[in-house]
Design brief:
Length: 463
C-alpha cells in the first residue's frame, strides 16, 4: 500500500505544531513504533506523527489539517485491538486520545454517564462503584471507551447486559470535514432519523473520530455469586449453556475454558481447577434470585456431565476467578514463552456452537499447533489463542490456514468471522465471503459518502 507523500506530512505536522504546540506533536521513533503496533501477530505499520488532542477543538483542528493535505488519520485508544486496526498502512497521523480522559457527568437518575473517548474501562469502573452503578461491557484488556465503541466490543457480561451496540446512547464525533456532530439526544428512545450512533459503533476509526460518548449504566446487583463447574466433555458444557439460556435463566456470565486453557490458567493464576472443559459462571440479583438461579443451573449442569459446582467462597475469591478469566490470554501465552498469540474470534448461532468447537478441536489436533480455547459461549463466541513462533514461517502458515478453515466453518454454520474483535485489516479478506458483494458495495457507498477522500484509517474493514 502506498504511503502518503512526505511533503504533505511535513506541511500537516508544521500546521499542527503551530496550532496545538510542539508538545502535542510527537515524532520520536519509539513513539511512532508503539502507535503502529497492536497486540496481534499482524505486521505493524508506523504513522509519521502522533498527535495528542486536549479537547474537541484540537480534535477538529487535526482532522481539518489532515483533510487539507490529504493525510491519513488513524485514531488510537489503548492499542489493544487484535486485527491490525491501528497499523498506519499508508502512514499519516495517529491521533492518540489519551488526554481526552474525563468523565464528564454521571446521572444515577437517568442511569447514564458521559465520558470522553480516552477514558479507560477500569477508570470508569472505579468512578462508578461508589454510586452503586456500573458500566457492563468488560473486554479482557483495559481498553478506552472510544476504542470499545469503535470496535463494537463485548465481554463476559454481554450475555446478560448486551455489547457496546446495546449500551451506547449517543456520540459526539468529528467527521471527515472537521465538523463536530452529535449523533443523537440522551433520551432512552428516539425514532428521529437514521441511526448514526449504531453506524459509528464498530466503524473502527474509518468514518469519524469519536470524541465523547453517553453510555447506559446498570444498577450494581444486591447479590453476586460465582462458581466454576468442570464437565466430562466440551459438548456437555455447551449443551448445558444452551439449556440454561433456553430456560430463560438471566445468567450474568457464562464462559467456557477448554482443558488446555484451564491448565494454562492454573499455572498462571495459581488456581487448582480440575483440568477439564469448565464453565465459569456468575449470578446477579437479590440474594433469593441468585440462590434460585444457581440451583436451577446446578441441576442443569449435573444433567450434562457437570456434577460439581465449586463456589467462590467470598467477594475476594469471586474477583480472583474473574481476574484469572480476564488473564486467560496472558496465561495462554505463558504456556510457550516467546510465542505470539494468534487470536481467532468466530461466533455462531448457539445451536451450532458444539459442532463448530468440536470440529475446530479436531483441526487443532491435526495441525500440531497449541491453541487453548476460551469463549463467551452464552453468545456463541469463542477464541483460540494459537501460539506461534513469529520467526517460523511454516508455523505461521499453519496458523493462518487453521484460522481460515475456522472462519469458513463459522460462516457455513450461519455465523461470522468476528464476534467482537472487529475486522481491522486481518479479517478484511473474509468480509465478502460473509456478506456477499452487494452488501459490501453498500458498505463501500457509506464509506465513500462520509469520507470521500478516504482519510480515516485507510485499508481497514473495506480495503
Ligand atoms: C488480552 C486481551 C483481551 C481482549 N478481550 C476482548 C474481549 O473480551 N472483548 C472484545 O471485544 N475485545 C477484546 N480484546 C480486544 C480489544 O481490547 C478491543 O478491541 C478494544 O475495544 C480496543 O480498544 P482500544 O482502546 O485498545 O482501541 P485501539 O486498539 O487503540 O483501537 C481500535 C480501533 O478503534 C479505533 N479507535 C480507537 N479510538 C477511537 C476513537 N476515539 N474514535 C474513532 N476510532 C477510534 C482505532 O482506529 C482502531 O481501528 C482483547 C484484547 C486483549 C489484548
Amino acid at each position: 500500500m502506498l504511503r502518503v507523500e512526505e511533503d504533505a506530512v511535513r506541511a500537516t505536522v508544521a500546521d499542527l505544531t503551530r496550532e496545538l504546540g510542539a508538545d502535542r506533536v510527537l515524532t520520536g521513533t519509539d513513539v511512532l513504533r508503539q502507535h503502529g503496533t497492536d497486540e496481534s501477530w499482524h505486521p505493524p505499520a508506523t504513522p509519521d506523527a502522533v498527535v495528542l488532542p486536549r479537547d474537541t477543538e484540537d480534535a477538529a483542528a487535526i482532522v481539518r489539517a489532515c483533510r487539507d493535505y490529504h493525510v491519513p488519520i488513524v485514531p488510537f485508544g489503548a492499542g489493544t485491538s487484535l486485527e491490525g486496526h491501528i497499523a498506519a498502512l499508508q502512514g499519516g497521523i495517529s491521533v492518540d486520545m489519551r488526554e481526552l480522559n474525563k468523565i464528564l457527568r454521571v446521572s444515577v437518575e437517568d442511569m447514564d454517564v458521559t465520558v470522553q473517548a480516552g477514558v479507560k474501562r477500569r477508570q470508569l469502573d472505579e468512578r462508578l462503584r461508589p454510586e452503586g452503578v456500573f458500566f457492563s461491557v468488560d473486554p479482557g484488556a483495559d481498553a478506552t471507551l472510544g476504542g470499545m465503541i469503535a470496535t463494537g466490543a463485548s465481554g463476559t457480561t454481554s450475555v446478560r447486559y448486551g455489547t457496546m451496540r446495546e449500551n451506547v446512547l449517543s456520540l459526539t464525533v468529528v467527521n471527515a470535514n472537521g465538523d463536530v456532530v452529535v449523533t443523537r439526544s440522551r433520551a432512552r428512545k428516539s425514532s428521529a432519523g437514521y441511526d448514526l450512533t449504531r453506524l459509528l459503533i464498530g466503524s473502527e476509526g474509518t468514518l469519524a473520530l469519536i470524541i465523547e460518548a453517553t453510555l447506559r449504566l446498570q444498577p450494581t446487583p444486591e447479590a453476586m455469586s460465582a462458581a466454576t463447574c468442570a464437565f466430562e466433555t466440551l459438548e456437555g458444557a455447551i449443551d448445558c449453556v444452551i439449556a440454561v439460556l433456553a430456560h430463560g435463566i438471566p445468567i450474568a456470565r457464562i464462559e467456557l475454558l477448554d482443558d488446555v486453557q484451564i491448565d494454562a490458567v492454573n499455572r498462571h493464576a495459581e488456581l487448582h481447577l480440575a483440568v477439564a472443559p469448565t464453565l465459569f459462571l456468575e449470578f446477579h440479583g437479590t440474594p433469593q434470585e441468585v440462590e434460585s438461579q444457581a440451583e436451577e443451573v446446578r441441576e442443569i449442569a449435573a444433567e450434562h456431565g457437570g456434577p460439581d459446582f465449586a463456589w467462590a467462597s467470598d467477594e475476594g475469591e469471586r474477583r480472583r476467578l474473574w481476574r484469572a478469566r480476564h488473564g486467560a490470554y496472558d496465561a495462554a501465552r505463558a504456556l510457550r514463552p516467546g510465542a505470539r498469540g494468534f487470536t481467532t474470534d468466530a461466533c455462531v448461532p448457539i445451536s451450532k456452537l458444539a459442532e463448530c468447537i468440536a470440529e475446530t478441536k479436531r483441526d487443532i489436533d491435526d495441525s500440531g499447533l497449541i491453541a487453548p480455547i476460551v469463549g463467551h459461549v452464552g453468545d456463541g463466541n469463542f477464541h483460540l489463542a494459537i501460539l506461534v513462533d513469529p520467526d517460523d514461517p511454516d508455523e505461521l502458515r499453519r496458523a493462518v490456514e487453521l484460522n481460515d478453515r475456522l472462519v469458513r466453518r463459522a460462516i457455513d454454520l450461519g455465523g461470522t468471522c468476528t464476534g467482537e474483535h472487529g475486522v481491522g485489516y486481518g479479517k478484511a479478506p473474509f468480509l465478502e465471503l460473509e456478506h456477499g458483494p452487494a452488501a459490501l458495495e453498500m458498505m463501500r457507498a457509506i464509506k465513500h459518502a462520509l469520507d470521500p477522500d478516504n482519510l480515516f484509517n485507510p485499508g481497514k474493514i473495506i480495503p
